[in-house]
Every structure is written in structure tokens, then in C-alpha cells.
């Protein structure tokens, strides 16, 4: 129950004036409203999620039936001869698929889905602000991401094809057309990522400034929801890590284009320098890809369990701790690179240390749901799925963190299993949770609970069946980025596993149609949502669904408490919104 | 919208007294620090690995001319901060004069850099590896300098120059706005953030001049 | 659409102003010192580098503190401004340890 009385006349009049004053293009295309920009990012990144998924399906087809003329690649006849001949994909195209799947998923799907969408949509709403600090800069951020995405897609269609040196673009494969067969595609890859990086950067400037300067009266730092905290720390990581990637990409671009030798040994360059620069960015990047999801899950678990988050302060410090320590662990991606072995020891220790704050968060999530009056709504299911799958991903990370153990596991499918457990089981489940949870606020309608539950169950099952066997494949010696596993006799016994994985991967991909349908259908046909359908506490739930321009129609929310007052003894209901007036109401005696 | 406007001012307790535009500019400049760190860091490492590719100070690069250029850029920082001081007192004429001076000094800096680049490339100091005859490998004696020297030099100073160029263009806009009377003693955030960016560009050059030209 | 707080650009007009010209002289002197030191071949190279970097950092701090007014800003802004520095140090030290 919100006590924010949005003056209906002002709301209606203001909104109406805007309807007439702002033309369609300024309102929906070149909008400066953070909510519209968030939704623009949502549609863009869901599209790229689909593209990345399709690329993975093509990869899986090749891995299950390598160069098998009886199992031609579906759709292969449409593709040019440089990619697929007689239904069998060329090895160079496989490398391009591997590269582009990773690049598109990391940079154009997951990162915008977590940051571009939710930092934009949620931050002003959760802090009680009418919009971001710099709305026009916000618009620029989205409209820079679009050409970056187009350039990345365009690279498939140029001479030589798309970049094929892996999403990590290691020199000297990436610097030399002689080795990779690709020049223009790799250049486009560099340029696209520099532009996208700049888009993320100005976004981060916006989020940080807004969070520091525009919180509502009464909203101290330690009354912020964990979603907001996570997005704040993520923004700081983006701000400081992306420029390093930009520098590296620029040098890589020069190596490819004007024959410099930053990373090319024949001119005194250092290939390891690229790896250091890339991973100095790359490790904070993976925390960028998980922290927001952790934040959303915290809020959703507390809401679903009708209990405060267990150990709120510890959760905050864990997020900050992960943000800090995340800067000194990057070498664990380079244990086998030939770097100074002493560094290996250093990075092993720091990487094992960073497991601690993540473990604290995990135990606190368990503590949150323990003894709760749990509502198993769809967002809650995704959030619980996140916790279980993230734990598995974290555990495989411990193996990889130990330098000596990493020796046989590096660049095998064990790593692939790890990254997909944290990125799909973690980040993507967090994204599903977030979309389902905030959909009513965004679009004023509810998604179908039943379809959500079915999608959750099938995704959970097929996800595990697809990726868990990869741990075995990897410890059995199957390498990453491998075009044809059957060419190695020692891998042939594992080929059935590859087929099994591919079948489940295809089923996993197909299952996402349920989510797509649920999402799109209910935009028009969904049940109308109330202001606070989940009976949640944070500020966004005191605004209308969807909120008008300016969010509260000119009224400033005043915050009286933290966001986790669920089942508070003084409150009548089992939730107590942050904006409600602080008059404790003695509840009727409840039998425990 | 006026009620919403009034609402945003009432953010008592949020932040620590640094208004949006200024905080935003400082935050943005932090990312720029990281950007130049990446470039300068790469230069340091590459130089340590290949000392024979880099000449001693003054042998290839024109230290006196660049020292003059450094002085010019520092002067432009003085005129910039004086411009800000003037508008703090509400002095429109002073603001315009000093902003104009800053633009001119900035353009002189860029001009001298362009001259320097032209002379260097004519002397054969280029970033491409293909333009160096031998690199001292395979037992042959090393030539004076190598492609890494040019590559790192042009990348670092080139990106600095790009930032200066952007700064000059923004400064022209700020000057234009000043001539239109858009800044007052009460409201001159645009001048302040322009100044922050400009001083930062000067600061980076102070570091670059030392590391690239004097070491 | 700018928020009014941003558009107002409210700044204090009665802030203590440092002597900008004095700082300019300092910067000039330090620059000349740097150039002088750089060409003194008597000093071993490692020591030379330390001295030059120290002088450059001193100049940079003068610009940051006085021209960018950091000295007169709230302490929190100092912490924020300093944030990239440890990261820069870490990156350079770790990669230097490769010492090819």
C-alpha cells in the first residue's frame, strides 16, 4: 500500500500535455527518458541474445556431427561457399562462430541486458529520482550501442568473414591475416568494441553521478536495495576497466591496419602484453556480468521469502569486496600463457580469496529463504535457480583457480562448463528473474505465471543436461574451439557425450521460444498490472505501472526505512514499503 | 514540469556538495586516466623489453620545440582558470577574453604538434615496421631506433592531440556561449567543467612530455 | 532535459582563490628543472627516471590541486579522483614483472 498520492490531475494533465507536445520520434526513438532507453536496450539485447544463441546452435551441430555429410547443417544451403560447402561448415567459419558467439553474447547480449537495461530502468526509480543526471548523454549511450552492434553483424558479410581469433582476440592470431585469414572482420571487431565501450563508459558516468547526487530525502546509502548497490559497483568497474580494453583494441587495430608491432614479435612486440591488457579489463568485465544479477536475486529472494535479506551490510561489503579484489585476479586466465610463474602464485591466492565474498553472499541467500513464508512465483524460481547454478559455477571456478589444477583443465571444456554455469546459470537466470519481476512495472502488464514456471523448469533441466557433461568432456581432455573432436583418437570415446549435449542444447534453445512468446504476447494481451503486484518495498513499486515521464508526477518520494522490511512485527501486512509513513501499526497477535 | 523541477532541487542529504555536471566530469576524467594508463603502461613495458629500439632523449625528438609547446599548454591552463575566476566574479568581459586566449593557445599547441609530426615523418620516424630496414634480429647490428619507438610515440601523443582537438572544439562552443552571455556569476557550470577537462589534458601532457621526451 | 540542479551549475562565488600566476611560475621552474636534469649524463639512468617522474607528478598535482580546485573540494572527491591510481600502479608493476 503506497501512501504516495500521485496527484491524478497533475499526472493526467502532465502526461496528456506530453502526448501532444512530443512527437513520436522524440518520444520513442530519440527519447531521453531513462525508462524508454532501458526498454530500447532490452529489445536490442534480446535480439542479440537470439543471434548469439543461433551461432551456438550451429557450433553444436558441427561438434555433434563433425563434417558429416549425412547430417548437413540446417540452413547451411543459404550460407555462402566461404562458410559452408555441401552442408559442412569450413573450419575457418567454425572459428568465426566461436568468436562471434562469445563476443555477441558477452558484449551485446548479457552486458546490456544487465547494465544497459536495468541500470537505466531501475536506478532513478529505486532512488526516487525523476530521471538520470544526464538524460541526453543517456540517449547518446544507446544510440552508440546500435551502430556498434550493426558493425559487429556486418563483419560476417565482409571479405574474409567475421573475426575468428576468439572473443579474447589473442595476438598474434588476431594481428595476422596470414595466420587467421581475416583482416577486415577483425578490424570491424576492434572498432565495434571501441564504440560499444564508449557507450558503456558514458552510461557508467551517468549511473554513478545519479546515484551519488539524486537520491530521495531519507534514502541513505545503507537504505538502498542491493540491486542498486550492485549496479553502482558495476558502474565503477565499467568506468575504470573499459578504457584499458579500448587502449588494447586501438593498439591491436594499429597492428592489423598500419603495420605497427605492439603485439607482433617480429618487431619486438609482446603478445603477452595483449593478454595482460585484455584480462585486466576482462576480469572486472566478468564481475560486471554477474554483480547486477546478484543484486536482483537478493531483492527477489527477500521479496519471495517475505523476509529481510540476511545480513544486508555483509551483502553490501561483499559486493564492494568483489569489486575491489576483482582488479587483482586477472592472471588466473593466463596460468598457461608462459607468464612469470611467480605471478601465477600471486594470482592463485587472490583468486581463491575472492571466492570468500561470493560464498558469503551465497550463505546469506540461503539464510534469507530459510524459514521464510515462500511465494514460489516465477521470479522467485529463477532466483533460486540462480543460486544453485551459480554455486556449481563457482565451485568449478575453485578448481580452475588452483594453478596446478588449471594445467590440464585450461582451454578445455571444463572452462566452457564453468563460464556457462556462471553466465547462463547465473547471469541469464538473473536476467529472466529480473525481466519477469519488473515486467509489470515496465509495461503495465503481467507475464503469464504458468508459462514462466514451464519455461523455468525446462530451461533448468535442459541447461544442466547441456552443460554439466562438459565438465567430464573437459577433464577427459577435449579442448576448446575444436572444429572436429573425432580427429583425435583419444577423444572419440567422448563423442556420444557431444551428441547428447547438442541435442539438449537444441532443446534448450527451443525452450526459449516459450519465454519469447510469454514476453511478446503479454505486451498486448497480458493482465493489467497494479502498482505493486509483488507486494515489494523498494521505491519503484510506489510509482504507477508503467510510470509516467518524471516517474512520480512531480511528487518527491520521502524514504523512511530500508527496503527489506518484510514481515516486520510493527506492520500490518508482511511488507512495508520504503515510502510509507513511519507509523508503526501493532499487528494482531500471530501464532508462530 | 516545474513541480518536478522543484523536486529535483530538494535532494538534501544526497551527495556531498558537488553538483551533477562537475561530478560527472570528474568521474569521466577518471576513465580517461585509465585510458592513458593503458597506453603509457604499454609503452613502458615495450620500452623495457626493447631498449635498443628507443633513442636517447633529444636524438630523434625535438625537445626544445616541445618544451615551448609544453609552456604554451600550461599558459592556456592559466588563461582557462583565469576565465573561470572572472566569471565567478561576474566579469563577462574577462571571461570572454581569457576563453578566447585559451582557444588560441590551444590551437597554437596543435599547430606546433602538427609541424613536429610533419618533420618527424619526413625524417623517416614512422610507426610501421615495414619502413624500418633492419630490426637488429638474426645477428645483424640494430639500426638507430625501431618501429616500436614510432608506434608508441604517435599513439600516445596522437591520442593526447585528439583530446586537445576535442577540447579546442568544445572550448570554441563555450566561448561562443560566453559571448552570448549564457554564463553568470550564479550559473557557470559549463565553464567550470570545460576548465576541468582542459586542465586534465594539460596534466596528461605534463606526464607525457616527461615520459616520452625526457626519459 | 537537464535537471535544474545541473543547469543552475551552482558554485560558490566566494571561494578562496589560489594565486594562479604563482602556480604558473612554479610549473615553469619545475619544467626547466626537468629539462636540465634530463640532460645531465652524470646521474645514473634509474635515478634520473625517478627524479623526472617525481617532478612530473609534482607538476601534475599542482595542476590538479589548484587549477582543478581539488584542494578546495570536499574530501570525498579526493578519494574518488584518486581511485584509478592504485589500479594504474598494479597494472604496471605486475606486467613489468614479466621482464622479457
Name a few traits of the molecule.
heterotrimer; A: mainly alpha; Cytochrome C Oxidase, Chain A; two-stranded antiparallel ribbon; about 60% helix; B: mainly alpha; Four Helix Bundle (Hemerythrin (Met), subunit A); elongated; disordered N terminus
Descriptive notes:
The complex is a heterotrimer of chains A (592), B (215) and C (100). Chain A is 62% helix and 1% strand. Chain A has helices spanning 8-21, 24-29, 34-64, 91-116, 118-127, 135-154, 177-180, 184-213, 226-257, 271-288, 291-305, 312-325, 341-369, 378-401, 403-409, 413-443, 449-475, 495-525; strands at 84-85, 88-89. The two termini of chain A are 25 Å apart. The radius of gyration of chain A is 24 Å and the shape is globular. Chain A has 592 residues and is mainly alpha-helical. The termini of chain B are far apart. The longest helix of chain B is centred in the last third of the chain and has 33 residues, at 147-179. Chain B is built from 6 helices and no strands. In chain B, 71% of the residues lie in helices and 0% in strands. In chain B, helix 3 (63-88) packs antiparallel against helix 6, helix 4 packs antiparallel against helix 5 (147-179) and helix 5 packs antiparallel against helix 6 (189-213). Chain B is mostly helical and 215 residues long. Chain B has one domain: Cytochrome c oxidase, subunit III, four-helix bundle (Four Helix Bundle (Hemerythrin (Met), subunit A), Up-down Bundle), CATH 1.20.120. Chain C is mainly alpha-helical. Chain C has one domain (17-96). Chain C is built from 5 helices and no strands. In chain C, helix 2 (20-38) packs antiparallel against helix 3 (45-67). Mean pLDDT of chain C is 84; it is low at 1-13. Chains in contact: A-B, A-C, B-C.
Amino acid at each position: 500500500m503506497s501512501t504516495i498520492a500521485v496527484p491524478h490531475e497533475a499526472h493526467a494533465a502532465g502526461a496528456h500535455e506530453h502526448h501532444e507536445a512530443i512527437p513520436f520520434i522524440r518520444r520513442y526513438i530519440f527519447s531521453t527518458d531513462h525508462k524508454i532507453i532501458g526498454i530500447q536496450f532490452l529489445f536490442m539485447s534480446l535480439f542479440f541474445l537470439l543471434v548469439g544463441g543461433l551461432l551456438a546452435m550451429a557450433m553444436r551441430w558441427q561438434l555433434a556431427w563433425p563434417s558429416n555429410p549425412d547430417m548437413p547443417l540446417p540452413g547451411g544451403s543459404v550460407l555462402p561457399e566461404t562458410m559452408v560447402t555441401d552442408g559442412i561448415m569450413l573450419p575457418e567459419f567454425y572459428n568465426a562462430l566461436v568468436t562471434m558467439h562469445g563476443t555477441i553474447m558477452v558484449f551485446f547480449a548479457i552486458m546490456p541486458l544487465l547494465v544497459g537495461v536495468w541500470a537505466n530502468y531501475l536506478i532513478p526509480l529505486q532512488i526516487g529520482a525523476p530521471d538520470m543526471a544526464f538524460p541526453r548523454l543517456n540517449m547518446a549511450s544507446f544510440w552508440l550501442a546500435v551502430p556498434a552492434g550493426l558493425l559487429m553483424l556486418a563483419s560476417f558479410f565482409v571479405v574474409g568473414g567475421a573475426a575468428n581469433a576468439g572473443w579474447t582476440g589473442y595476438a598474434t592470431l588476431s594481428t595476422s591475416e596470414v595466420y587467421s585469414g581475416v583482416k577486415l572482420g577483425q578490424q570491424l571487431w576492434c572498432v565495434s568494441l571501441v564504440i560499444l565501450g564508449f557507450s558503456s563508459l558514458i552510461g557508467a558516468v551517468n549511473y554513478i553521478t545519479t546515484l551519488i547526487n539524486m537520491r530521495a530525502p531519507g534514502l541513505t546509502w545503507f537504505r538502498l536495495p542491493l540491486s542498486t548497490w550492485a549496479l553502482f559497483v558495476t558502474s565503477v568497474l565499467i568506468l575504470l576497466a573499459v578504457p584499458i580494453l579500448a587502449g588494447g583494441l586501438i593498439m591491436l587495430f594499429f597492428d592489423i591496419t598500419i603495420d605497427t608491432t605492439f603485439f607482433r614479435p617480429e618487431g619486438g612486440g609482446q603478445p603477452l602484453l595483449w593478454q595482460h591488457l585484455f584480462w585486466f579489463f576482462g576480469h572486472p568485465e566478468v564481475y560486471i556480468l554477474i554483480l547486477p544479477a546478484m543484486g536482483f536475486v537478493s531483492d527477489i529472494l527477500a521479496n519471495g521469502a517475505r523476509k529481510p535479506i540476511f545480513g544486508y551490510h555483509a551483502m553490501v561489503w561483499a559486493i564492494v569486496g568483489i569489486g575491489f579484489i576483482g582488479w587483482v585476479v586477472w592472471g588466473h586466465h593466463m596460468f598457461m600463457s608462459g607468464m612469470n610463474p611467480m605471478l601465477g602464485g600471486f594470482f592463485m591466492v587472490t583468486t581463491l580469496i575472492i571466492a570468500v565474498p561470493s560464498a558469503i553472499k551465497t550463505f546469506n541467500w540461503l539464510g534469507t529463504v530459510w524459514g521464510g513464508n515462500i511465494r514460489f512465483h516465477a521470479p522467485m524460481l529463477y532466483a533460486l535457480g540462480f543460486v544453485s547454478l551459480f554455486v556449481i559455477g563457482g565451485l568449478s571456478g575453485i578448481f580452475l583457480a588452483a594453478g596446478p589444477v588449471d594445467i590440464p583443465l585450461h582451454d578445455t571444456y571444463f572452462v566452457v562448463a564453468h563460464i556457462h554455469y556462471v553466465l547462463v546459470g547465473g547471469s541469464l537466470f538473473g536476467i529472466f528473474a529480473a525481466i519477469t519481476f519488473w515486467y509489470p512495472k515496465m509495461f503495465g502488464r503481467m507475464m503469464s505465471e504458468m508459462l514462466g514456471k514451464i519455461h523455468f523448469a525446462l530451461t533448468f533441466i535442459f541447461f544442466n543436461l547441456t552443460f554439466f557433461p562438459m565438465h567430464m568432456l573437459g577433464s577427459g581432455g577435449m579442448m576448446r574451439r575444436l572444429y572436429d573432436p573425432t580427429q583425435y583418437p583419444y577423444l572419440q570415446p567422448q563423442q556420444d557425450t557431444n551428441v547428447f549435449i547438442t541435442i539438449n542444447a537444441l532443446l534448450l534453445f527451443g525452450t526459449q521460444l516459450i519465454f519469447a512468446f510469454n514476453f511478446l504476447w503479454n505486451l498486448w494481451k497480458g493482465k493489467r498490472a497494479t502498482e505493486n503486484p509483488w507486494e515489494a518495498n523498494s521505491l519503484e513499486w510506489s510509482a504507477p505501472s508503467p510510470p509516467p515521464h518524471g516517474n512520480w508526477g512531480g511528487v518527491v518520494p520521502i524514504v523512511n526505512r530500508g527496503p527489506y522490511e518484510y514481515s516486520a512485527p510493527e506492520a500490518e501486512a508482511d511488507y512495508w514499503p520504503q515510502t510509507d509513513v513511519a507509523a508503526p501499526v501493532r499487528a494482531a497477535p500471530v501464532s508462530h | 514540469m516545474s513541480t518536478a523541477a522543484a523536486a529535483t532541487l530538494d535532494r538534501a542529504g544526497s551527495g556531498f556538495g558537488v553538483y551533477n555536471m562537475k561530478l560527472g566530469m570528474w568521474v569521466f576524467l577518471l576513465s580517461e586516466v585509465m585510458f592513458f594508463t593503458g597506453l603509457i603502461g604499454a609503452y613502458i613495458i615495450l620500452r623495457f623489453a626493447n631498449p635498443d629500439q628507443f633513442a636517447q632523449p633529444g636524438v630523434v625528438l625535438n625537445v626544445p620545440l616541445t618544451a615551448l609547446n609544453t609552456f604554451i599548454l600550461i599558459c592556456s591552463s592559466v588563461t582557462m582558470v583565469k576565465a573561470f575566476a572572472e566569471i565567478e566574479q561576474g566579469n563577462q568581459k574577462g571571461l570572454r577574453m581569457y576563453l578566447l586566449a585559451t582557444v588560441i593557445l590551444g590551437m597554437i599547441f596543435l599547430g606546433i604538434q602538427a609541424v613536429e609530426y610533419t618533420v618527424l615523418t619526413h625524417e623517416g620516424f614512422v610507426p610501421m615496421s615495414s619502413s624500418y630496414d633492419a630490426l637488429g634480429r638474426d645477428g645483424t647490428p640494430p639500426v638507430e631506433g625501431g618501429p616500436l619507438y614510432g608506434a608508441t610515440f604517435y599513439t600516445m601523443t596522437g591520442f593526447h592531440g585528439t583530446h586537445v582537438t576535442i577540447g579546442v572544439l568544445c572550448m570554441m562552443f563555450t566561448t561562443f556561449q560566453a559571448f552570448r552571455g549564457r554564463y553568470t556569476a550564479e550559473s557557470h557550470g559549463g565553464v567550470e567543467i570545460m576548465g576541468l577537462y582542459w586542465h586534465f589534458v594539460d596534466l596528461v601532457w605534463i606526464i607525457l612530455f616527461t615520459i616520452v621526451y625526457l626519459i | 532535459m537537464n535537471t535544474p540542479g545541473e543547469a543552475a551549475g551552482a558554485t560558490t562565488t566566494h571561494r578562496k582563490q589560489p594565486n594562479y600566476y604563482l602556480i604558473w611560475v612554479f610549473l615553469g621552474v619545475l619544467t626547466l628543472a626537468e629539462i636540465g636534469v634530463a640532460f645531465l649524463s652524470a646521474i645514473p639512468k634509474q635515478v634520473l627516471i625517478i627524479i623526472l617522474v617525481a617532478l612530473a607528478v609534482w607538476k601534475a598535482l599542482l595542476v590538479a590541486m589548484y587549477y582543478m580546485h581539488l584542494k578546495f573540494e570536499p574530501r570525498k572527491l579526493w578519494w574518488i579522483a584518486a581511485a584509478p591510481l592504485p589500479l594504474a600502479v598494479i597494472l604496471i608493476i605486475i606486467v613489468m614483472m614479466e621482464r622479457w
